[in-house]
Amino acid sequence: MHRLSGKVAIITGGSGGIGLATARLFLDEGARVVLVDLDEARLRAAAAGLGGDAVEVVAADVSDEAAVRDTLGATVQRHGRLDVLFCNAGIEGAVTPLTDYPVETFDRVLAVNVRGVFLGLKHALPVMQRQGGGSIIITSSVAGFKGGAHLAAYSASKHAVVGLMRSAVLETGASGVRINTIHPSPIDTRMMRAIEHGRAPGAEDAARQMISTRIPAGRYGTPDEVALTALFLASDDSRYCTGGRYSVDGGMTAG
């Protein structure tokens, strides 16, 4: 039985590792998926790799309110509803001490990672409340539980989206809208390649090994492993789950 049959889902950060893995799983489970990202060429390549006519692409900046409003509005106009919004777009920013952190980079990280989630909530909630339900899933991080040295903006942004989630849950009440955050450990994606390089330029493999020793499971997670949690939260299997923080971290936050 397809767990997302008839559902319409928007996935931001849709051409990246977690977004693309989630799109593939959602499609397999019967959803119609709208992929949102900045780079239209990458989006179209991602959609071509997924195949079928149940996937659409929209090139948009999640920190731009007009773009977010128009993307959600066009989706609802075309399909009549919005069942799932996966706020997954995010950037790592600089890997540098806080005292050296460029202000313009800090502002951009918060614009994408926090403002982008805020705008998604702002424009998706009225739609879902009118239709009597829906699921909003927000990608946070293990950095949303604890600090990250040399990743001040990223860590701050991933804490901030938990506050947005909790506030939104209290405001939505018994509307049937569910809102939760996912907290991955390091996942084997482009973002971690950039962080490894920032930690140890020219010695990225050593950086990866060092980071892996901090994970009880002894390895990075995979995009597919995060996608499985997103599927649970998107489906009716999680119908009584809202306001939750779901770790997908190989035990990294256990200690």
Walk me through the structure:
This protein is of the alpha/beta class. It has helices at 17-28, 40-50, 65-79, 103-131, 152-172, 190-199, 204-212, 223-234, and strands at 8-12, 32-37, 55-59, 84-87, 134-139, 177-184, 245-248. A seven-stranded parallel sheet has the order 3-2-1-4-5-6-7, sandwiched between helices. Helix 1 (17-28) crosses helix 8 (223-234), helix 3 runs parallel beside helix 4 (103-131) and helix 6 (190-199) crosses helix 7 (204-212). The protein is globular and about 50 Å long.
Main traits of this protein?
alpha/beta; seven-stranded parallel sheet; 255 residues; single chain; 47% helix; globular; 7 strands; 8 helices
Can you summarize this structure?
By secondary structure, this protein is α/β, with parallel strands linked by helices. It has helices spanning 17-28, 40-50, 65-79, 103-131, 152-172, 190-199, 204-212, 223-234, and strands at residues 8-12, 32-37, 55-59, 84-87, 134-139, 177-184, 245-248.
